[in-house]
Amino acid sequence: MKAITIQKFGPPDGMAVTDLPDPAPAAGQVLIATQAIGVGGVDAVIRSGAVAAYGFTEGHIPGSEVAGTVTAVGEGVDASWVGRRVWAFTGLGGGYAEQAVASVADVVPLAPDLSSADAVTLGASGVVAHFSLAHAHFARGESVLVRGAGGSLGVMTVQLAALGGAGAVAVTTSSAERGELLRTLGATHVLDRSGEGVEGDADGGDGGDGGDAPTGYDVIIDVIAGADMPSFLDRLNPNGRMVAVGVVGGPPPEDFGARLIAAFRKSLSFATFSADTVPRSAQHTVRAEQFAAASRGELRAVVHEVLPLDEAVLAHRKMAASEVFGRIVLTP
């Protein structure tokens, strides 16, 4: 089969198209002929070599979620899965390929009216967005800031916060154009990456009908982290909660904890969140609900672009250049 492998950790050019033997499902697994492959931020982090301590080696196949048709099952798996179209989590690799294996416990059936591209755009991001807001104890009427809202995770968080009755949903993003797209998804205020008004935005960072942007937020969902992360602690209201769900901008500076302690009298809370801490059954329940909501038109899967599998390097270049709004999807 054709697959994308990491030949050298670092820039996107370190990935290459490789011919590999067809995989076979082990006990408890299914084999999937992929129709759509999600390109996520975690793929870029692994490809960069930033998580080398976790044991990834050259020859690793990136990709954690796929959609396609089950073609074979391993020992102990009901044969009725064969021929069914599914979404699947493949772990921290194995997805960028014409065929992928996944544990049957990480597979969700897809309805005919949900495309495979939409499924891999919603599948992981929607669950993380849902449970990160729950982790922040978000409540109706509270103000929310989504830092790094242009990617698939940020896009889903904006939608879910708006649907959950947020009093305001502010976003940081890179342009007024993206800000307008985020407003169509529920954002009420658009800020630049530093948290100020977007240059060229007609209302200077206001939300139009939403009025002036809040001076503080009850909840901040942070996809970015990085050097500027401490400054966003200052934007939390008393008893405000910040939850880090990604580190695409790298780790925060060493004095991040000191900044938190300096605001001791505001009773601020900071937490990290990974979906690894949520039971599979709970994830699948939420995922199935979101797939159904997308089928009804209540949630939008924002697909930036669909590219052939052999253009995975281009997909990663686009992500590195911050050109992607939503998610890039690869097809074999």
UniProtKB/TrEMBL annotation:
Q: Which Pfam families match?
A: ADH_N (PF08240), ADH_zinc_N (PF00107)
Asked if the keyword Cell membrane belongs to this entry, the reply reads no
What GO terms are given for molecular function?
Answer: oxidoreductase activity
UniProt keywords (A-Z) are: NADP
**TM segment ranges:** none
Would the keyword Metal-binding be found if you checked this record's keyword annotation? no
Ranges for domain Enoyl reductase (ER): 10-330
Matching entries from PANTHER family are given as:
QUINONE OXIDOREDUCTASE
What is this protein's record name? Answer: Zinc-binding dehydrogenase
